[in-house]
Amino acid sequence: MPDDHRDQRSNAVPSSRLGRLYHLGRASGDLALGLGWQGLREMVRGSEGSGQIEISPAQAKRITERLGHMRGAVMKMGQLMSMDGSDVLSPEVAEIMGALRHEADPMPLSQLDSVMRRELGKGWQKQFQEFDFTPIAAASIGQVHRAVAADGRELALKIQFPGVRESIDSDLNNLGFLFRHTGMMPDGVDVEPLLEEGRRQLHQEADYEAEADALEAYSAALGDDPELRLPRVHRDLTTQRVLAMDFVHGTPVDQLAEQGTPQAVRDHAATLLSRLSLRELFEFRLIQTDPNFSNFLYDAQRGCLMLLDFGATHSVRPELVDLYRRMGRAARDRDQDELRATCEAMGYLRPGAPEAEARDMLDLLEMTSEPLRHVGPYDFGASDLFERVYHRGRAMFFGNQFSSTPVTDTLFLHRKFMGTFMLCRRLRARVDINGILTPYLDDPAARA
Predict the structure, then answer these.
(1) Tens-digit pLDDT profile for residues 407-422
(2) What angle do helix axes 263-279 and 411-426 make, rounded to 10 degrees?
(3) Does residue 189 register a pLDDT over 70?
(4) I need a surface site. Which of 71, 174, 276, 318 has the fewest CB within 10 A?
(5) Rg (CA), the chain
(6) Percentage of the chain exceeding pLDDT 70
(7) Residues 251, 255, 258, 261: is their CA dihedral positive or negative?
(8) How confident is the model at residue 19 (pLDDT cuts 50, 70, 90)?
(9) How many C-beta atoms lie closer than 10 Å to residue 311's C-beta?
(10) Model-level pTM?
(11) What are the backbone dihedrals phi and psi of residue 65, each rounded to the nearest 5 degrees, phi first?
(12) Average pLDDT for residues 213-239, to the nearest whole number?
C-alpha cells in the first residue's frame, strides 16, 4: 500500500443533507468566483478559446479541500472529472485537482472508533496486535489502515466513513439540483440517467461485503497469474463497512511516469493493464470499472501489478461482449456498414440518423480506434490521439450531435477503457494493442 497520507489533518464527515449541501454550495461558489458564471457556462459548453480553464491555484485548492472534506458521492464525481485534466487545466491547477484521485481528509479518531465499535464490537482493539491509527490512504468512501491481527496476519483495513452510505441519494439529488438550475449543462442534455447510474454504482461500492464477494470472484477468474496479484479477503474481520485484506506493497502505477523510470518498465506496466482490461471483457466478463490509478500498485522487484479495489466490479452480458467484438473488428478493418450497425445496436446512433450525424460518429470512432490498426507497439507518448479525440468529442457533445442515449451498462465499460488509455498515455508507454486484441476479435476460442 502507498504510504503518503501521514501529514493529513482529520475532519469530521458531514452527514446531514443540509450540511453536505452547504459544502457543495461553497465549492460551487468557489468555482463560480474563479471563472465567473459566464466563464463557467462557456467551460461546460466547450466554447472556443485558449483551451485552458483559468482558475488560480488558491481557488482550485479551496475547491478540492471542500470536496475532500465532504467525501462520498460528491468527491467521487470530482475524482471522475479530474482523471486527467492536463490538457484542459493549467499545469498548476491540474496538479491540485489531481489530488482528488488520491486523498480525502481522514476522519477523526472519535468517528473511527465509533465505526469500529459498531462493526467489530466494543472491544474491537483486542482483535489486533497492532493498529496504526494514522490512515495510509483516504479516498471518497473510506480510509485504509495498516493493522496486525491477533494471530499475526498483516492486514489492510478499509473502513467506511460514517454517513457516506446514507448520504449517497441526497448527494446525487444535490448534484442534480446544481446541474439543472445553474445552466452548467448543455441544452437538452438529460443528466438523470448518469446520476442514476452513479447512484447504483455508489450503493454497490459502499457495501464492503459485496466488494469482498467481487474480489473473490475476480480472483477465481484470474487464476494463477504471476504478473497480476490480488490481496486475499479476511472474512472474520469483514463487515458491510469494514473490509479486511492482505497488506500489499508497491508503488502507485502512475508514479512510474516520473523521470528516471526505464521505458521497459513503463511499457511492461501499461501492457499488463491493457491485456487485463481485454481479458476482463472477453474472458472473465467481469470488469473492475474504477480506473483510479492509485488502485494499481507496481511491485518492481517481482515485475507484477497488485490490484486493490473491487467495489466497482460489474459482470458483462454475453450479448454485449459480442457487440464489442463486432465493433472492434469493424473499427480495425474500417468496415463502415458493420460499424454503423453496431453503433445503432449499442445506442451510439439512433436508427435512421441523418447521414452527416452518422458520418461524424463513425469518424470519431475511427479516430479513437487508431491504436487497434497500428501494427506493432503503439507509442502513446509520441501520439496526440488523446487531444484529437477529446476536442472532437467535446465539440460534438456540446454541439448536440449525440442524439441517442447509449446502452446504460456501456457507461462503466467506457470509464474502464478510457482510464486504461489515459494510463498508457501518462506512462508514455509503447503497447502492442493490435497484437493483444486481435486474438479476441478473430479466434472463436477467445469466446470463453
Answers:
(1) 777 877 887 888 899 8
(2) 170
(3) no
(4) 318
(5) 22
(6) 69
(7) positive
(8) low
(9) 25
(10) 0.77
(11) -65, -40
(12) 95
Please say whether the beta carbons of 98 and 293 come within 8 A. no
The amino acid occupying position 223 is G
Burial of residue 337 (CB within 10 Å: 0-12, 13-18, 19+) is: exposed
How does pLDDT run across 100-139, given as a tens digit for each residue?
555 556 888 999 999 999 999 999 999 999 999 999 987 7
Residue partners of 247: CB distance under 8 A and separation at least 6 = 1, 146, 154, 155, 156, 231
The pLDDT score that the predictor gives to residue 254 is 87
Which one of 30, 84, 267, 290 is the catalytic residue? Answer: 290
Return d(Cα 404, Cα 346) in angstroms, integer.
Answer: 10
CA–CA separation, 133 vs 113, rounded Å?
10
Question: What pLDDT shows up at residue 56?
Answer: 54
Tell me whether residue 246 is one of the annotated catalytic residues: no
Whose CA is closest to 116, among 133, 101, 136, 137? Answer: 133
- Please answer whether residues 365 and 390 qualify as being in contact, where contact means their C-beta atoms are separated by less than 8 angstroms: no
- The CA–CA distances, whole Å, from 426 to 146, 173, 270, 423, 442 equal 29, 34, 10, 5, 30
- Domains annotated for the chain, with CATH where assigned, are 17-104+166-184 (no CATH), 109-164+204-246 (3.30.200), 252-448 (no CATH)
